[in-house]
Write a structure and sequence with these properties.
This protein is α/β, with parallel strands linked by helices. The chain contains 29 helices and 37 strands. α4 crosses α21 and α5 runs parallel beside α21. The radius of gyration is 27 Å and the shape is globular.
Length: 914
């Protein structure tokens, strides 16, 4: 395997008997122990003996269970859906082992929050050979802009090690020049990252250009608050499915998209298994019969990517047919009291068109009844399966309809949330035990409802005599670029501004009339988010990175984004402290019933600094008041969060303090701003255990039935829509999409079928004759156990356990002469990459799965090995400004070179120092 272009490498031949940090090394009695070489070595060459294994260095405690140490609760901080408890065994500043939740007995009342392979491999992030160890500068770049930039060399230039003082001076000099010359509109923070330290600096300097995105929620990001359904999961009013104990009362759990077994590898999948044990029958609808479906013995209804709307329209048609044929299928009472716009008798006042969803389904407006036969040709589901589904979701069956967000990350999915809501309302699947409709997403998945225990604000208690901090982080720039056009805006110096897509507080659209604006981006700030891999159109992103004057990256590993930067700063992980204090979800992640109180386990490794320390130093060099930016220490803010944590009381409604704090605790901790209080658990116990779990039991008063109050009294408990009801005719949706203008014509206020751009129908050169085109295969991107988004991709343990393949149907593979394990070229007009084929019988013909988040590895031939799916998409969007991550077309052929090493045997390529 050829090395990455332009990256030289120092090969480490020997390793020390133990790993020590630079801080521990200086002045330490263990100074005789060697540090690893200055550069980052291939992880596959490092071992306890110097040969064969992937461990950074000898960790004797791995082999000797008698070694004393401390079990420290640590965060599993990546953005997967499990959010599980981890504990790190620390011996002499080294994490030797990792375990998961064993604090509570694993019962129905207090389930254990057990980690998946990703969490159990976290120590490789801290001690892995791919750690960024010191600040680095691209050799061809210097401050000043112009001829000093050499932007075309980004991604292929060599690197040099610099000191922290040099790095801070370079960065401060260049940032001051850019802000003084071009202002805040010239700076983009390219990703949300794990914290807010970056924006905490950039805001007071003059702001930065933000971006609006619908990458995760897809089209559910846009208008579901206006619809009254609130499928923006977790936001105020957004708890749209029931809790885990209610899953035990349902007859059918119908999953449309989603794969919790991979994406939410902890408790969410366990709750589904409990429901199976209780008798629930599972149905899975999607292009592959995935691990979730097979584990739960689900009935699989195959469905092509991007065609869910057609499937559901046909299901609604069949429900209407069955209602007319024999009755007692549709919940007319719920439709009458709780919705508007289903039929001509329930239209809102002042409707813009005299049309409704029922008549559209029956073909009144286009002479195309949305029959199962009509949908089957588009979506690939059999007529029999569509009819079976319609029969199943009738009102007399207790159905919990759970959908992943993958179907909404498609072109043409603008009406998917509305038709999903329409079918759910026809069956009356809201507001009753065993009935629900909403997302299966993140750590709310399968256990929805307001949190019963919550972390507190990182501020002193009221009445403590310590002032609250001053907010110095407002973004002073009113620009907001849609993320789909982020790189294009940088490259073209022009973009279309729409305002803010959505106000999370009430779902109200803030999209304004489109306004053309010029933009001159000179700096890209990126921290932890690996934006080149995770944002759409990686090829356009590379051009954008090469165009600007300065790119700065903070991270703990050398990501593809770091590769295209000018200065890369080694940042600490959440296990190293005192670390960052800005992101509460990292130290205090939770599900509905569980709160974690994590700690730092080890000192910062090598020369890594926390993002707070980095920002604080830069702020001082740029003339900002660091005392105002950071009025409290990291330790103080962590203590405030614990002290301000709340838990539900016995009445099931009010909340009180979680943690008991005595005056002795306050004196011992030495933290100003704490006051004595009575809670449920002592300070020492919560800190030692790292977890608090609110016990549940059948029949308690802590349950959650979404929409229950609304169903009982819709007028007294209105939804956030304009009518207060669920709007199957939603004028706000039409107004929003029309203001965006991407559709080219007005989108009706009810759900219609929109032909997806780059969807199944576009895979044909001629649809009528069914002659296939140049790119006949549909690509979708699963979340995969190898990664959490783009994190973990260089984790050697996970590379050994999980390849980074392209999954394809056995018939499609045979047609191309491809066998399991062959290296294949995946390509279209936008880009290409090479991966190994995993040939399966559980994938629909014509569909391929390219798991999300992989890091491109560039070879001498300029084709990426392990390339990410965003190499295949362009910047086009559909009516709702949605970039079709799961509506991409490609072709696959057997690659000419079959001598590429497998993932686990390829070195983790890093820039070295000659």
């Amino acid at each position: 395997m050829a090395k990455r272009r332009g990256c030289s490498m120092t090969m480490v031949k020997k390793v020390a008997d133990s790993v020590v940090t630079r801080r521990a090394f200086v002045g330490s009695a263990s100074a005789a122990a060697m540090l690893l070489a200055a550069g980052c070595a291939p992880a596959s060459q490092l071992s306890e003996t110097g040969e064969g294994s992937s461990d950074v260095a000898a960790l004797p405690a791995d082999l000797d269970e008698s070694v004393d140490g401390e079990w420290v609760p640590v965060p599993c901080w990546m953005s997967c859906g499990g959010k599980c408890l981890l504990k790190a065994h620390v011996v002499d500043g080294i994490v030797t082992r990792v375990k998961t939740d064993d604090v509570y007995e694993d019962t129905l009342e207090t389930f254990q929050n057990r980690g998946c392979p990703r969490g159990r491999s976290q120590r490789k992030h801290i001690f892995g050979a791919d750690r960024l160890k010191y600040p680095m500068k691209r050799k061809g770049w210097m401050p000043g802009g112009g001829e000093n930039v050499n932007g075309d060399l980004r991604g292929r230039d060599e690197w040099e090690r610099i000191s922290w003082d040099e790095a801070f001076d370079y960065i401060a000099e260049e940032m001051r020049r850019i802000y003084d010359t071009y202002g805040g509109r010239s700076v983009i923070r390219a990703n949300f990252g794990r914290g807010i330290a970056g924006s905490k600096l950039l805001g007071p300097l003059g702001g930065f250009v933000p971006f609006e995105f619908c990458d995760s929620y897809g089209t559910n990001f846009m208008y579901t608050g206006n619809l009254g359904g609130y499928f923006n999961h977790g936001e105020p009013g957004g708890w749209s499915t029931n809790d885990r104990l209610d899953l035990l009362k349902t007859d059918y759990i119908i999953m449309q998209g989603g794969n919790p077994a991979w994406a939410s590898g902890g408790a969410p999948m366990f709750h589904l298994w409990r429901a199976k044990e209780a008798g629930a029958q599972f149905v899975y609808i999607g292009p592959e019969c995935n691990l979730t479906a097979t584990t739960l013995d689900a009935k699989w209804i195959p469905l092509r990517p991007g065609t869910d709307t057609a499937f559901l329209l046909a299901a609604a048609y069949e429900m209407l047919r069955l209602e007319e044929e024999r009755g007692d299928i549709i919940d007319w009472d719920f439709l009458d009291r709780c919705t508007i716009g289903f039929d001509a008798d329930h239209m809102p006042e002042g409707a813009s068109v005299n049309e409704n969803i029922k008549d559209y389904i029956l073909g009144a407006y286009d002479n195309v009844p949305k029959t199962p036969e009509w949908a089957s040709e588009i979506c690939g589901s059999s007529v029999e399966d569509i009819k079976w589904y319609a029969e199943t979701v009738q009102k007399n069956n207790k159905c919990t309809m759970l959908f992943g967000y993958a179907p909404s990350r498609c072109n043409g999915a603008e009406n998917l949330p509305q038709i999903m809501e329409t079918v759910a309302c026809m069956g009356g699947h809201h507001g009753k035990e065993g009935h629900a409709c909403g997302p299966v997403y993140h750590f709310w998945a399968t256990n929805d409802g307001p949190a019963l225990v919550e972390i507190g604000n990182p501020e002193p208690a009221e009445g403590s005599g310590v002032a609250a901090p001053i907010d110095l982080t407002p973004n002073l720039v009113d620009d907001a670029i849609l993320s789909n056009y982020l790189w294009q805006a940088v490259n073209e110096g022009h973009y279309t501004w729409f305002g803010t897509v959505v106000d999370y507080t009430d779902g109200t659209s803030l999209i304004q009339k489109a306004e053309e604006r010029d933009i001159d981006i000179r700096m890209i700030w990126t921290d932890y988010g690996n934006s080149l891999t995770t944002r759409g159109n990686t090829n356009e992103g590379i051009k954008a990175f090469r165009k600007v004057d300065f790119v700065l990256t903070l991270d703990y590993v050398f990501t593809p984004t770091a590769q295209y930067s000018d200065i890369v700063l080694p940042a600490t992980t959440p296990w190293e402290g005192p670390g960052y204090e800005d992101q509460a979800s990292c130290f205090n992640t939770h599900n509905r019933e569980t709160l974690y109180i994590s700690r730092w386990a080890v000192a910062p490794q090598f020369e890594a600094k926390s993002d707070r320390e980095i920002v604080e130093t830069l702020a001082g060099k740029l003339g900002l008041d660091t005392a105002a930016l950071f009025p409290y220490t990291t330790e103080e803010m962590h203590a405030y969060r614990i002290a301000n944590a709340t838990v539900v009381q016995e009445d099931g409604e009010t909340f009180g303090p979680l943690v008991t704090i005595t005056q002795e605790d306050i004196d011992r901790l030495g933290v100003k701003g704490l006051v004595p209080q009575k809670g449920k658990i002592s300070w020492d116990e919560i800190v030692a255990n790292g977890i608090y779990h609110v016990a549940r039991k059948k029949g308690d008063n802590l349950g959650w039935i979404a929409y229950e109050d609304f169903r009982r009294d819709p007028e007294g408990n209105p939804r956030a829509s304009a009518s207060g009801k669920i709007e199957l005719f939603c004028q706000a949706k039409t107004d929003m999409l029309d203001r965006l203008g991407f559709a080219g014509e007005s989108i009706p206020p009810y759900a219609t079928y929109l032909r997806p751009l780059h969807g199944y129908e576009d895979s044909f050169e001629d649809w009528a004759s069914k002659k296939k085109g140049a790119y006949p295969l549909q690509v979708f991107n699963s979340h995969y156990l190898r990664r959490a988004h783009s994190a973990f991709d260089t984790n050697v343990w996970l590379r050994e356990a999980f390849k980074s393949p392209v999954f394809m149907n056995a018939a499609d593979a045979a047609e191309r002469g491809i066998e399991n394990g062959d290296w294949v070229r995946v390509f279209n007009e936008s880009g290409e990459f090479v991966r190994q084929a995993s040939v399966v019988d559980t994938m629909m013909p014509g569909c391929v799965d390219v798991p999300h988040g992989s890091w491109p590895e560039w070879s001498e031939g300029d084709i990426s090995v392990n390339g990410g799916p965003n190499l295949l998409n362009d910047s086009s969007v559909s009516a709702g400004a949605q970039q079709g991550y799961n509506t991409v077309l490609c072709q696959i052929e057997k690659y000419e070179n079959q001598d590429i090493l497998p993932d686990a045997e390829r070195p983790v390529i890093m820039p070295g120092i000659e």
